[in-house]
Amino acid sequence: MVAGSKCRKIKAMASPTVSAPKRETDPKKRVVITGMGLVSVFGTDTDTFYNKLLEGQSGITLIDRFEASEFSVRFGGQIRDFSSKGYIDGKSDRRLDDCWRYCLVAGKRALEDANLGPAVLETMDKMKIGALIGTGMGGVTAFSSGVESLVQKGYKKISPFFIPYSITNMGSALLAIDTGLMGPNYSISTACATANYCFHSAANHIRRGEADIMIAGGTEAAINPTGVGGFIACRALSQRNDEPHRASRPWDKNRDGFVMGEGSGVLVMESLESATKRGATVIAEYLGGAVTCDAHHMTDPRKDGLGVSTCITKSLEDAGVSPEEVNYVNAHATSTLAGDLAEFNAIKKVFKDTSEIKMNGTKSMIGHCLGAAGGLEAIATIKAITTGWLHPTINQDDLEPSVTIDTVPNVKKQHEVNVGISNSFGFGGHNSVVVFAPFKP
């Protein structure tokens, strides 16, 4: 009897370490996703985008937007046949940098998806609706054209739109100007971690009661001579010009750098109270997120992955989720030699038993969309949750032997996502992780 009671005591003492952390239950502070919008190499429809990913189709092609024959890298995830019809007026469309065109179309499509079109918005308190759409590089084409005018023709020939269309806050600003949103409005620029930083901050505005709804995400349009030339100079890009569609190959032994992409990915994030009150369809739930800094190097990750593993751990704490509950990771996985393994090692450090976890790399098909990457990958994560299918990581021909988690190689897999995380890391050592799950009332 004495031994039995001792056992019961020990069991009772041990239980707090294995019980799941408490998730948010206050409908004012629970953040749900009610709309999604994107501009991608696979078009502007979220279903089409995800179906192409499920098929394992590569959107990487030779660049023809500018004369790239003299460049040592001549391919990328270039968007073609983009139309902003119905979303941007003709005069603005002709002037705008693609970065802002992508942002406006993705943002307005997300609002439509959330049943927040112009007529509905007119009936709402717009002081409680904000926009937080960031970019890593801003209006690169507008900036390049302005500098070119200065050098070739003098300062008097610089366009009056040079500054407004170059600066990084303009995506959120233009979306607000077009839709009348008067809540929190700014941009975050943390290189390739940008969109996740925006989701994290947007959710905190809702949790603090400063907004009921936030339109959040990232946008980027850097496939132009300045952008491509700059990343070539950084020695960050794959050189596989003879087979572009096979160039982005996360965790593969023969990877040789990332592939540039572009586009925009935007979510409508809303308090559960607001979504319930207006009868919105809830797509998924945002449980939490975190941001940290490597404090190590401008472009290289820490080899020990400390900044990343800490960020994952903090995101789970914020979400009220135990590591055992996570069974899907949409990895940053850019296809760089150091980055892929540093991220993998950090994941292994946090998730001791990875037998139930699957992780994949969206960038293997659409390239690295820089500031927009986290936005497009958040949509891929949410689609995995709602469809029960994970897209493959393509070009997995010769996996690094140390990578022992299922990377969903080359063919899609059915997988019921319990909790999914999406990782994004940027130059400067910026780390960001967001946590999504199926919505359960």
Automatic annotation (TrEMBL):
This is 3-oxoacyl-[acyl-carrier-protein] synthase. It is found in: Plastid, Chloroplast. One of its GO terms (biological process) is fatty acid biosynthetic process. It holds the Pfam family Ketoacyl-synt_C. Homodimer. Residues 1-11 have a biased composition (Basic residues). CDD domains: KAS_I_II. Keywords: Acyltransferase, Chloroplast, Fatty acid biosynthesis, Fatty acid metabolism, Lipid biosynthesis, Lipid metabolism, Plastid, Transferase, Transit peptide. Catalyzes the condensation reaction of fatty acid synthesis by the addition to an acyl acceptor of two carbons from malonyl-ACP. The lineage of its organism: Eukaryota, Viridiplantae, Streptophyta, Embryophyta, Tracheophyta.
